Amino acid sequence: MNIIDIRSDTVTKPTPAMRKAMAEAEVGDDVYGDDPTINKLEKLGAKMLGKEASVFVPSGTFGNQLALFTWAPRGTEVILGEEAHIVQHEAGAASVIAGVQTRTIPAPDGILTRKALEERLRHRELHFPATSLICLENAHSLGQVVSLKAMDEARAVAKEWKLPIHLDGARIFNAAAALGCEAKDIAARADSVMFCLSKGLCAPVGSLLAGSKAFVEEARMKRKIMGGGMRQAGILAAAGILALTEQVNHLAEDHARAKKMAKDLAKIPGIIIKPKEVEINMVFFAWPAAEKEKTAKKIVDIFAGHGIIINAPEHGVFRFVTHYWIGDSEAQAILAASREAFRSEAAAS
């Protein structure tokens, strides 16, 4: 049975072209700066984001934490949205690696407004730390895309406070496809940007952290401290180059399938979903009955019986994620399983 995995776009496997490129990659010692494939990837990534330089890192979490480690002095405070990946899914690393305090603010749809920022930004005084960095996220890990206008508002506040902005752009190319702009247009609103080569772009490992030459030079030193010097990493970079030159153009197809899936799911009685709110490749929908653990497990098992892997819901909310390996036939199989799973539960309730 061909397994269909829609838990996340992190489950993507490298394309045949990537596997070939990895096998044939020219390599050297990257810590010495001698790996030609790494060097090529870093130049390409920086150019695509309109930055002076970039540095290859093992993962998105590594890249985000490296940015905090580089920008923020120990004992200072980093401002970011309360649902930001850096806060919710990076194991409290900011306190361990950079030694900083994170201060969250409400950020509906991933937007940090001027009002919310100004209520939290602080100068150093006897009883509290100074703000040293503002972090944005686009596309947001909850599936929203933040407009350039909203990013400009945050940028203006940062400029007034003379603060840098770091962008968690793990899915920046998804955001660009959704906004109808180039990734560099989004990246221009931040001083540093981390973006993933994996996820929807299919590379098996790796992210890039981009910014000015001075910032990247310092980040490269901090990367060494964090254990990120990976020697002959050109084998991985070869896949990353194809991620940027070939896979970026497929993201709009993933978005289109997600939007169609949302419309089809909306036709199933009992499912609560707003198809117009699907902006990238993530489909969130509610099934109130699934708040019961027994019911949720039954639904997951029905999908498994069809060879489809899904995550259990959180508070009755499911997330289906389309990606390169979810084509039209896989989308139809997901819809068929959804009709069986949710209608059978409706009949049983």
TrEMBL record:
Signal sequence, renumbered to the chain: none
GO molecular function: L-allo-threonine aldolase activity
Aromatic amino acid beta-eliminating lyase/threonine aldolase domain ranges (all copies): 5-286
Modified residues (N6-(pyridoxal phosphate)lysine): K199
GO BP annotations listed: glycine biosynthetic process; L-threonine catabolic process
Cofactor(s) demanded: pyridoxal 5'-phosphate
CDD domains xref list: TA_like
Keyword Lyase applies: yes
The UniProt record lists the keyword S-adenosyl-L-methionine: no
Enzyme class: lyase
The protein's Enzyme Commission number: 4.1.2.5
GO CC, one annotated term: cytosol
Alphabetized UniProt keyword annotations: Lyase, Pyridoxal phosphate
Similarity section: Belongs to the threonine aldolase family.
PANTHER family named in the record: L-THREONINE ALDOLASE, L-THREONINE ALDOLASE-RELATED
Protein known as: Low-specificity L-threonine aldolase
Lineage, top ranks: Bacteria, Pseudomonadati, Spirochaetota, Spirochaetia, Spirochaetales
Gene that encodes it: ltaE
